[in-house]
Amino acid sequence: MKSRRAALAALVVGVLLANGDLLQVPGDHGIESLMIFLFPDSSLFEETVSFTQHGVFALQSYHLVQRGPAFADDLDASLSADARYLVKAKSHRDGKEKQYDGRLDLPPDVSNGLVVTLLKNLARQDTQTVHLVAFTPAPRLIRLELAPAGEEQVLNGLVGFFARLLGKMPPDSHAWIVVHDVPAFVRVVGPLYTGPVLRVDLSSPHWPR
Predict the structure, then answer these.
(1) How many CB atoms lie within 10 A of CB 74?
(2) What's the whole-model pTM score?
(3) What residue spans define the domains of the chain?
(4) Do 188 and 200 meet the contact criterion of CB atoms below 8 Å apart?
(5) 31-35, 87-91, 114-118, 170-174: lowest mean pLDDT where?
(6) Quick one: CA torsion of 114, 65, 72, 99, rounded to 10 degrees?
């Protein structure tokens, strides 16, 4: 609870919680995307997704690692294209370890690790519904609606639009996408699946205070 309150306070005053990267690398069988955050207290958030984009975006594999005091539990979760999952979790509260494995009945639009990619390809008037598997730590399927919500100006003159991510769990999030010739992600405010609401900004462009 202390870490979550600290994260909320940091969001309000703009304190830097972690540094990170979002990288995508093309491969022989699709695209691999890595999002990683490194915290000053040695906590780590690392999300790796492999996907194809032949007409539609299709998840091939997903791996989530979160560990350290910034999170309620240490978690190592993986999900394959055939819907098999393996989750290893360790509670920070009592040190107990749990493991979950099996196979889920999943729709074809499961989009773990793909939300930013989907938003960059969302037309201004489009609304798209997808699903995510939230690891709580047991896997739980949730429905997510991606919906454009408006436009605003950033200081470098680029006009962006932001989309609301609507779902019961995680809570509503907002993402800002620059809509020039090549759409680009610039900001998101929301939780990393579960946990406190955080704000993720790129090092540029600069935002008005």
Answers:
(1) 19
(2) 0.81
(3) 2-201
(4) yes
(5) 170-174
(6) 110
